[in-house]
Recover the amino acids of this structure.
């Protein structure tokens, strides 16, 4: 999957796909990856030089790659797609034009503290860390490389970077992550009350609808078992001057960014928790890079003036 964090970053891709003939080339190579330049020329009734020009534009945009192999009359160039889907983050594009901000990605495994109960586990893109349902695995050094973790109750806590300088004022904090409930196997109708805290202050609770496993995650490793968590929902927790929201529309609490009294000296600690005594103790799964649908770590955006 190709993830583009803004419209500006997506511009070369959009430009490359603006030519109808290049769209036709993409359709052909997705239907039959590894076709030759000659095949494309014949299929589209183009000259070899015209096909070469169009393909070079797609290569520059990172959409296709060319493999050179031996043919009947020397070498032959084979064209294949680089990605199976593309996501463009439109929201970042809109905010970048009006506000000063900084952005950091925190890997799922880079938690600074945790307390979890089974069912639980974590994994890197290369393999599971320890044994499934063994809470000791969360203390293994490999946990820093984890791209997915899950637990039934408890919490994980992350330190968030603070790049503010003296005289700068934080206006809004956004924390984005791919998340779901945790069920032994999967259950799309399995609500879980997931609580959020910043520096020990309760931000609010969001109810995850379920644990999704009806299909494979778009970016999960090929070896990842079908019986384990597959993908989640991409959510954006927003703490601003009007309160705390999920995705901008669902109010979680009246707590504002000013209530947190943060400045350039503040240390930031973010906790994701499922209390054992909450009404819907349905666990939590966090998907990071190379897992789930979005290939995204925990993304922190801070807007300031």
């Amino acid at each position: 999957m190709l993830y583009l964090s803004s419209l500006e970053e997506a511009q070369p891709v959009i430009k490359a796909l603006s030519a109808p003939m290049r769209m036709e080339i993409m359709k052909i190579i997705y239907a039959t990856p590894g076709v030759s330049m000659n095949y494309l020329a014949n299929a589209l009734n183009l000259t070899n030089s015209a096909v070469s020009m169009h393909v070079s534009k797609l290569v520059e945009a990172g959409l296709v790659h060319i493999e050179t192999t031996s043919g009947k009359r020397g070498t032959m160039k084979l064209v294949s797609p680089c990605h199976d889907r593309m996501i463009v983050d439109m929201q970042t594009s809109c905010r970048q034009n009006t506000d000063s901000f900084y952005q950091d990605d925190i890997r799922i495994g880079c938690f600074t503290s945790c307390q979890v109960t089974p069912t639980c586990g974590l994994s890197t893109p290369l393999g599971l860390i320890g044994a499934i349902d063994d809470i000791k695995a969360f203390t293994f050094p490999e946990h820093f490389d984890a791209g997915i973790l899950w637990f039934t109750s408890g919490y994980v806590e992350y330190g968030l970077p603070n790049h503010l300088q003296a005289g700068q004022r934080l206006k809004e904090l956004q924390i984005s992550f791919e998340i779901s409930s945790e069920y032994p196997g999967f259950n799309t109708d399995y609500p879980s009350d997931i609580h959020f805290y910043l520096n020990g202050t309760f931000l609010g609770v969001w109810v995850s609808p379920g644990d999704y496993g009806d299909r494979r995650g778009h970016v999960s490793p090929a070896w990842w078992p079908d019986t384990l968590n597959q993908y989640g929902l991409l959510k954006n927790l927003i703490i601003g001057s009007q309160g705390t929201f999920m995705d901008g529309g669902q109010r979680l609490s009246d707590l504002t960014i000013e209530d947190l009294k943060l400045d350039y000296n503040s240390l930031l600690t973010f906790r994701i928790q499922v209390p054992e005594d909450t009404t819907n103790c349905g666990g939590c799964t966090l998907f990071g890079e190379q897992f789930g649908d979005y290939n995204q770590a925990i993304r922190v955006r801070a807007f300031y003036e």
Remarks:
- The chain is about 15% helix and 35% strand.
- Residues 48-60 form the longest helix (13 residues).
- The radius of gyration is 23 Å.
- The helical segments are 7-16, 20-31, 37-44, 48-60, 90-96.
